[in-house]
Amino acid sequence: MGVNKTRSDGFTKVFPCLYRYEKTGKYFAFIRYQGKLTKQKLEANTFAHAKRELIEARQKLERVDLRSGKLTLNALCLGSVNLCL
C-alpha cells in the first residue's frame, strides 16, 4: 500500500479517506462528497473496524440530501402540508 504520510496536524493517512490521529490513536473519516469535505470521528480502535465504519459513513452520506441542509422547520412543515393536499 505504501508509506503512511503524517500531516502537520497530527493525522496519519492509513487508507484512502481514513486517517488516524497520532495522539489518541482514534480513526477519522475524511470524505469528500458533492464538493464538501466531511470529517467524522469513527468509534473504532482497530484498522479493520475503522474500514467497516468508513464504508458505513460513505453510505450514510449518499443517503442524505445535502440540498435540504438549510431547510427551515417552517418550510419543512409547509412542504409536508402541500404533499397532503
Per CATH, which architecture? Answer: 2-Layer Sandwich
Tally of helical runs: 2
Overall number of structural domains: 1
Q: What is the makeup of the main sheet?
A: 5 strands, antiparallel
**Low-confidence runs of at least 5 consecutive residues:** none
Q: Tell me the strand percentage band.
A: 25-35%
Shape field: elongated
Average pLDDT rating: 84
Query: For the terminal residues, how far apart are their CA atoms?
Result: 56 Å
According to CATH, what is the topology?
A: Double Stranded RNA Binding Domain
Content-based structural category: alpha+beta
User: From N to C, what is the helix and strand string?
Assistant: EEEEEHH
Gyration radius (Cα, Å) is 18 Å
Tell me the helix content: 25-40%
Strand order within the widest beta sheet: 1-2-3-4-5
Count of strand segments? 5
**CATH class (first level) name:** Alpha Beta
What's a concise summary of this model?
The chain has 85 residues and is of the alpha+beta class.
Describe the structure in your own words.
- The protein has about 80 residues and is of the alpha+beta class.
- The protein has a single domain, classed as Double Stranded RNA Binding Domain (2-Layer Sandwich), CATH 3.30.160.
- Helices cover about 35% and strands about 30% of the residues.
- It has 2 helices and 5 strands.
- The chain has helices spanning about 45-65, 75-85, and strands at about 5, 10-15, 20, 25-35, 35-40.
- The chain has a 5-stranded antiparallel beta sheet, with helices on one face.
- The protein is elongated, with a radius of gyration of 18 Å.
- The protein starts with a strand and ends with a helix.
